[in-house]
Task: inverse folding
């Protein structure tokens, strides 16, 4: 599904990842600053590797050797940020539909109503992001990314800003999304407990490298 | 003992010199109509050279601007206006002393154009001025700047005042009007003869005859608080030596002005 | 309450102000965005040039405008020959004078409003399939709106008070370039003009007060719309 072979460097930080991600949900674990967010940024196209290649479902997104570069808005990769990054001037409804409206009807594999129901955000549709709680924001962010019908969903510590109780409440939604929508995910976090719940395919970013977790 | 005495003497001498310089340093402030800029600058130099310690500070602008400034407390010792009205204005308010007031100079009004671009204009009543040139006619603001008021009289005399309105540009003083014509921004201008003489970039198209406007007279005088040095300078401006300088710039001498 | 000529002055000031604001809008937004988001070699030079009208005495830009856009100037002749537009001694020239003087205000307001936008919002939009232009149109520009509003009001207000560049470039011609500050100046020069000057000054004060009030109200509205302020 996702072949990654990249080397990235910025000042004193370096990251080397060579891996083929094929599991439905891959968990990536690492301490702060280890580079796990950088890995997602590289996959999404928000950062350029110093050298390397990224291929998704057979399409080359990036190849420094051959001079291939697909910009982020053409990669069909969804990204859920740590703090949601909901567009403050749009209602929840328009936030949800933001990516949905950027794809053609044929590319839309999921219906808004389904996702709204799945994530239980029906009562929030007319509100503005400033009026949502932390947990509500993350659910909307998840729904927004999913409605974009991406080929791959990247989640960058989506729950780290929430308290334990909320985390337990929202974690099941991720499984629900996978069960219903079958979008593969790469889930990054520094909280092992989240990965325990979600997946057995777990990796660690450490010393600038990605390693399979031995469990 | 001797050292302290020496020091004391030195200090006292310094203070005396300082005091002396204060009493001798005379500062004469002159507010003069813009058309007098060059003549007054030269005369100020001449006077300063032969009167050591005297400093003349000049301010040139439209007579209206200067009069209003003096009314509002601007410090001036000598005031020279380009028309009677503004001198009357200050005299009425006790800001220009009647004893010192004298008509100093006279001038003429001319129609000018940028050099080598003179339209053919006839100064005759009810000739169509507007079709004789294209563009704007520039002069002082007719409502309050002296040269503009004279210009309005002349334009009215020839029957052109109403028609020229949309093409008239009024400025805050005569030199600004002159500058616009020099720059070619205005096709015609009405300024004093002396201004036209000063400029190398304009030419005189026609001279307005005396009957087309009230006589252009420059009254001047001392202000209420003028000091002794200002008195002496005002006398100098009325002297034969000063008159020669004014004549050289193209001014005439007012009938009751000089000695 | 107001005489005819005073209404004329007011109307002219408003007209000049509105057009100056319109003229400043697009270039101001563009340069503000450019200074906030892009880095390039000549950036400090561009920054200095754009903000010069703020530190120069207004007669300087006024004189330069006269040289370039006057009837003998390069740009002035081009405008006249190709579009029949003349700017000297004309309300259109007054618009240009105000626009040039107030331009830094728009650039600054736009620049600040862009700097306050979290870049990650723009990144998020691009991960949702929005092209760079679409990101600019649907995310950056709407979020810049309060800043642009403030900038517009500041340009308008500055234009209402513009004197030095206006009188140097287009003179003080009643009905054509005699905006409020020039009218007050002229009134104070006339022998019995003090009463009119006072009335015009009161108008000035009222205009200044109401434009600041409006600026405040519009900004609060915009902030509420952006979700920065609770409804």
Result:
């Amino acid at each position: 599904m996702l072949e990654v072979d990249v080397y990235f460097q910025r000042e004193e930080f370096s990251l080397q990842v060579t891996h083929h991600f094929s599991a439905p949900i891959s968990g990536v674990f690492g301490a702060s600053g280890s580079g796990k967010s950088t890995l997602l940024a590289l996959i999404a196209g928000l950062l350029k590797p110093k050298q390397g290649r990224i291929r998704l479902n057979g399409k080359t997104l990036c190849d420094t050797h051959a001079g291939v570069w697909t910009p982020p808005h053409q990669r069909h990769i969804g990204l859920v940020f740590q703090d949601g990054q909901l567009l403050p001037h749009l209602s929840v409804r328009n936030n949800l539909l933001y990516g949905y409206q950027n794809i053609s009807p044929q590319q839309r594999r999921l219906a808004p109503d389904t996702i709204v129901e799945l994530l239980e955000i029906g009562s929030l549709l007319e509100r503005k992001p400033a009026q949502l709680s932390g947990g509500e924001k993350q659910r909307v962010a998840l729904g927004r990314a999913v409605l974009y019908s991406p080929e791959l969903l990247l989640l960058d510590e989506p729950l780290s800003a929430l308290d334990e109780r909320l985390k337990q409440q929202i974690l099941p939604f991720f499984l629900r999304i996978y069960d219903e929508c079958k979008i593969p995910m790469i889930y990054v976090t520094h909280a092992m407990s989240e990965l325990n719940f979600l997946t057995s395919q777990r990796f660690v970013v450490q010393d600038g490298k990605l390693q399979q977790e031995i469990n | 003992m001797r050292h302290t005495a020496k020091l004391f003497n030195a200090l006292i001498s310094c203070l005396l010199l300082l005091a002396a310089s204060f009493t001798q340093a005379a500062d004469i402030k002159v507010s003069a109509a813009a058309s007098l800029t060059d003549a007054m600058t030269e005369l100020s130099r001449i006077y300063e050279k032969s009167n050591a310690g005297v400093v003349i500070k000049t301010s040139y602008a439209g007579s209206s601007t200067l009069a209003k400034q003096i009314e509002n407390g601007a410090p001036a010792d000598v005031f020279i206006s380009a028309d009677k009205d503004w001198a009357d204005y200050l005299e009425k308010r006790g800001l220009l002393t009647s004893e010192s007031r004298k008509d100093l100079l006279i001038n003429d009004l001319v129609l000018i154009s940028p050099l080598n671009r003179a339209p053919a204009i006839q100064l005759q009543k009810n000739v169509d001025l507007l079709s004789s040139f294209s563009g704007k006619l520039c002069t002082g603001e007719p409502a309050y700047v002296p040269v503009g008021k004279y210009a309005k009289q002349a334009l009215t005399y020839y029957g052109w005042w109403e028609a020229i309105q949309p093409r008239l540009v009024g400025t805050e003083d005569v030199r600004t009007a002159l500058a616009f014509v020099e720059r070619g921004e205005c096709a015609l201008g009405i300024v004093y003869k002396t201004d036209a003489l000063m400029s190398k970039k304009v030419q005189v198209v026609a001279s307005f005859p005396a009957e087309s406007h009230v006589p252009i007279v420059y009254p001047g005088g001392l202000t209420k608080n003028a000091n002794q040095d200002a008195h002496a300078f005002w006398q100098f401006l009325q002297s034969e030596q000063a008159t020669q300088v004014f004549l050289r710039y193209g001014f005439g001498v007012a009938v009751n002005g000089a000695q | 309450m107001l005489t005819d000529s005073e209404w004329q002055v007011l109307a002219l000031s408003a007209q000049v102000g509105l057009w100056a604001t319109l003229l400043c809008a697009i270039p101001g937004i563009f340069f503000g965005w450019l200074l906030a988001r892009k880095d390039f070699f000549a950036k400090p030079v561009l920054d200095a040039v754009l903000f010069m009208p703020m530190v120069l005495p207004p007669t300087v830009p006024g004189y330069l405008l006269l040289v370039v856009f006057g009837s003998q100037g390069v740009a002035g002749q081009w405008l006249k020959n190709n579009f029949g537009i003349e700017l000297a001694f004309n309300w259109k020239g007054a618009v240009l004078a105000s626009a040039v003087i107030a331009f830094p205000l728009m650039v600054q307001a736009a620049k600040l409003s862009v700097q306050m936008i979290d870049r990650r919002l723009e990144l998020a939009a691009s991960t949702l399939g929005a092209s760079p232009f679409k990101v600019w149109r649907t995310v950056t520009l709407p979020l810049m709106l309060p800043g642009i509003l403030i900038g517009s009001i500041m340009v308008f207000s500055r234009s209402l008070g513009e004197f030095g560049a206006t009188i140097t470039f287009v003179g003080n011609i009643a009905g054509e370039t005699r905006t409020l500050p020039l009218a007050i100046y002229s009134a104070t020069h006339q022998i019995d003009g003090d009463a009119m000057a006072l009335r015009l000054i009161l108008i000035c004060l009222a205009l200044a007060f109401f434009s600041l009030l409006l600026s405040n109200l519009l900004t609060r509205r915009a902030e509420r719309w952006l979700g920065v302020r609770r409804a």
